[in-house]
Design goal:
disordered C terminus, Immunoglobulin-like, 21% helix, eight-stranded mixed sheet, Rossmann fold, 572 residues
């Protein structure tokens, strides 16, 4: 209870006041008849004595009244411990509630408590909505990354209550900065003077850095009980590579006052097939992410990985839902994005572009995704393993930034250079993938130098005579320059490669345009496409996307998403 509550209850101490008043009452002395007094002159009595309480019923009524007054004064302070909005002058309020539905909110409010942080946040949102009145406006933003608007500003409070009730927990990361920005923008066009943003979150990704709101918007972050680190480890992924399983385990920092050698230090990581433990290792819960390798026994190496799970066992931590991950075999349908100009990528004999015909002929099991422009969003790149960009006029700064990050994460980028690449506008370039100035020359040697070929091998037969009508020439910078792997007959670079992080960049100084050369019609072109696809699959381009990323599934009327191995249906 608050200080005001205790102050109100302190009024009960005044119950002694009626007692004192009753004790201080005086009454006349009792008269005793005595015959001798008839002989003594009469005098006025000047002595009185204190008496005991006479009217006990009256005293009880008075004392009860004082106690009732104390309880009545304390009652409003007790009920106001529920979240509510204090209005300024009784004016209406425009309110945005930020509800954090990220994975960290799966933790309990307190260790051993049955209530999760997310359930408490929903309860608090319901309390806030119960205090709103007619004329108030409310909006709801979900803070799981990326932050998104669940309900635009409205005066329909019933719709807001239904949405809060239906809100579900997710495994997303936290995007509180984006959520506060969205929440403030939703209030921007409203006529209300009193505009507020309430953040219902554990602030798991903020550390000590405070959240800020724009001028004119009041920011409130209640629910102190949601904050505070708890010991937790989780399995990020588990990939089968040959006879081993590579599992990544991430552990967060625990409470500052946690004892060393607690229950979490006794945890182990294991491969399970049903309830059977196939392999088990001790887990040292260091803060951060680390990769562990577990070897499959001979009896399980030929089985479908859908029956295998990597699980954390022993001890206990804050979130149980992240302690288990299915074992996924690296392979499957590789997603290949192709960016090309339809006018220059057509084939004289008709049919689809040469790249699509090549992958169809190779039957590599890839899924081609023709793209109208080079992606510049992580959500567009995250599902791709290989991206082929045919003769575009450079990349914009945002495209360069996202492409570099994607390649470093394991993507394979194939760039062809033609007349369009040499005509890049101001501000566009291919750096850092290709730190060079691109020029287009209308003359080219007859073909490649087989003596300086590290890629084609026997498939390079026929590439000595390409009949090219031009080629791209590069002025390479010394620092970060790619490696030449195939040369023209004059020694200039025909094909280059550059490693960036876990990924690879391949550069061809000839485009796929059959009007420029017949390179796309030669067997060596098929070999190059197969090599690019195999490299992308090896570097992990098939594996996964981050939680919350958008999946683009064009051309399908119905999409069903299910969890691998256990058959639980998930909403797409």
């Amino acid at each position: 209870m608050s200080f005001l509550t205790w102050a109100a209850l302190g009024v009960a101490a005044l119950v002694v006041a009626p007692l004192i008043a009753h004790l201080l009452r005086r009454r006349p002395p009792d008269e005793l008849p005595f015959a001798g007094t008839k002989l003594v002159p009469a005098r006025t009595a000047v002595a009185q004595r204190r008496t005991a309480i006479e009217d006990r019923a009256l005293f009880a009524i008075r004392a009860s009244s004082v106690l009732a007054l104390a309880v009545l004064g304390a009652t409003p302070f007790v009920t106001c411990e529920r979240l509510s909005i204090a209005r300024e002058g009784g004016a209406s309020v425009a309110l945005t509630i930020i509800l954090d539905d990220s994975m960290s909110m799966r933790a309990k409010v307190q260790p051993g408590s049955p209530t999760t942080r997310f359930a408490r946040a929903k309860e608090a949102a319901t309390e806030l909505l119960a205090g709103l009145q007619e004329g108030d406006a409310v909006a709801i933003v979900l803070a799981g990354g990326p932050a998104r608007v669940a309900l635009a500003a409205t005066t329909n409070l019933d719709a807001a209550r239904e949405l809060v009730t239906a809100a579900g927990q997710t495994d997303r990361g936290t995007d509180l900065v984006g959520a506060v920005q969205l929440a403030s923008e939703l209030l921007g066009d409203l006529q209300h003077v009193d505009k507020r943003v309430v953040v219902l979150s554990d602030l798991a990704d903020r550390g000590t850095e405070p959240l800020t709101a724009p001028e004119g918007v009041k920011l409130w972050v209640p629910l102190e009980e949601l904050r505070g680190a708890q010991e937790n480890c989780g399995v990020v992924f588990a990939d089968r590579v040959g006879d081993r399983v590579a599992a990544r385990v991430a552990c967060g920092p625990g409470p500052e006052d946690a004892e060393q050698g607690g229950a979490i230090d006794k945890r182990r990581i294991a491969i399970l097939r049903g309830d059977e433990v196939l392999e088990e290792l001790p887990l040292a819960p260091d803060v951060g992410a680390k990769d562990l390798f577990l070897r499959l026994p001979q009896s399980a190496q030929g089985q479908d990985t859908a029956r295998l799970f990597v699980t954390l066992r022993g001890g206990a931590d804050a979130i149980d839902a992240d302690d288990r991950a299915p074992v996924v075999a690296i392979g499957g349908r590789l997603q290949v994005g192709v960016v090309s100009d339809p006018a220059s990528s057509h084939v004289a004999t008709g049919g689809p572009p040469a790249v699509e015909q090549a992958f169809k002929a190779l039957a590599l099991g890839v899924q081609l995704r023709p793209l109208s422009a080079v992606p510049d969003q992580p959500s567009e790149l995250s599902s791709l393993g290989l991206l082929i960009v045919d003769d575009v006029p450079g990349f914009t700064p945002s495209q360069r930034r996202e492409l570099a990050e994607w390649v470093e994460g394991g993507g394979v980028l194939f760039i062809t250079l033609g007349p369009g690449a040499a005509a890049a506008p101001l501000g566009s370039s291919f750096a850092p993938m290709l730190p060079a100035i691109v020029r287009w020359s209308r003359s080219a040697p007859a073909g490649i130098d087989r003596e300086r070929d590290e890629i084609f091998g026997e498939a390079g037969v026929g590439l000595e005579e390409l009949s090219a009508k031009g080629r791209a020439e590069l002025d390479l910078e010394e620092e970060g320059a790619p490696k030449r792997v195939v040369a023209w007959k004059d020694g200039a670079s025909f094909l280059l490669e550059k490693r960036m992080g876990r990924g690879l960049v391949i550069i061809s100084t000839l485009p796929f345009d059959t009007e420029v050369s017949d390179f796309a019609l030669r067997p060596g072109f098929l070999h190059l496409m197969k090599r690019a696809a195999d490299t992308a699959r090896t570097l992990g381009g098939v594996a996964r996307t981050t939680v919350g990323a958008t999946w683009s599934l064009d051309g399908y009327e119905d999409v069903a998403v299910s969890r691998i191995g256990d058959g639980d249906r998930l909403e797409p």
